């Protein structure tokens, strides 16, 4: 009797014209956290010297190159081919999610359409990616925030991956409102909220990844804002919003709920 796998099936679609080949290994590792990338395709005009850096990656990571010639100057036929394939894959009904690798905001309508069918869309792009595309995805991660930063080629990414400090985080009104709303939505009568459901609530609200702010975990980001009281009971973390304008993280050892 065949075993039924509950592993999520994800289509990895790469806009090779607008994605760095050097980051494909860490992108695939990130996709693997969400499921199996059983469809892997990269779109572009493979006759172009601009895509030379991608050639070695295709075979190494079992990515199928989709050739798309530029039929007219100034038009990106690869984008159209990628959108058509995405819709064909969606209608086939065999996938649970899509991972779209691009820094091009033209894919925003595609992301919004995919979401209406209940599939998750994981976006990956460079820091230059326009916000409409970033915000449309279920989760969007800047590629500069992924992987080790040992070599000189990544030196330019340092400012992007540097942690934002307390003042910078508080100035991000979208982030502050998102965190406060999520904590409030799942908090008990005593104001304390389990951090796990808080994270789920945030992901339901908008595209979010704490690494985009320089923090590897949501708990670290929440604590860094200094807008929440944080405590740990066993292996469970709880957070509670401090009064507006309050400061000084209330991480009190041994504090009880309530």
From TrEMBL:
Gene3D superfamilies: 5'-nuclease, LOTUS domain-like
Domain (HTH OST-type) ranges: 171-243
Organism superkingdom: Bacteria
Pfam family, one: NYN
Protein name: NYN domain-containing protein
Source organism of the structure: Novilysobacter avium
């Amino acid at each position: 009797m065949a075993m039924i796998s509950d592993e999520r099936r994800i289509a990895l679609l790469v806009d090779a014209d607008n994605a760095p080949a050097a980051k494909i290994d860490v992108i695939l590792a990130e996709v693997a956290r969400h499921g199996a990338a059983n469809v892997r395709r990269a779109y572009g005009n493979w006759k172009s010297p601009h895509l030379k850096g991608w050639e070695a990656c295709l075979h190494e990571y079992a990515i199928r190159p989709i050739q798309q010639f530029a039929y007219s100057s100034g038009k990106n036929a690869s984008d159209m081919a990628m959108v058509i394939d995405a819709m064909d894959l969606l209608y086939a009904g065999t996938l649970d999610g899509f991972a779209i690798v691009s820094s091009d905001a033209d894919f925003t309508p595609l992301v919004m359409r995919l979401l209406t069918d209940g599939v998750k869309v994981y976006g990956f792009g460079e820091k230059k990616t326009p916000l409409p595309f970033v915000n449309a995805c279920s989760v969007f991660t800047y590629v500069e925030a992924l992987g080790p930063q040992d070599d000189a080629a990544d030196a330019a990414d340092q400012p992007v991956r540097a942690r934002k400090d307390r003042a910078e985080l508080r100035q991000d009104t979208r982030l502050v409102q998102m965190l406060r709303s999520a904590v409030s939505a799942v908090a008990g009568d005593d104001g304390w909220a389990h951090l796990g459901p808080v994270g789920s609530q945030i992901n339901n609200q908008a595209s979010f990844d704490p690494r985009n702010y320089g923090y590897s975990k949501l708990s670290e980001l929440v604590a860094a804002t200094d807008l929440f009281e944080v405590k740990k009971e066993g292996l469970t973390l709880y957070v509670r919003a401090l009064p507006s304008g309050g400061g000084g993280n209330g991480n009190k050892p041994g504090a009880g709920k309530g």
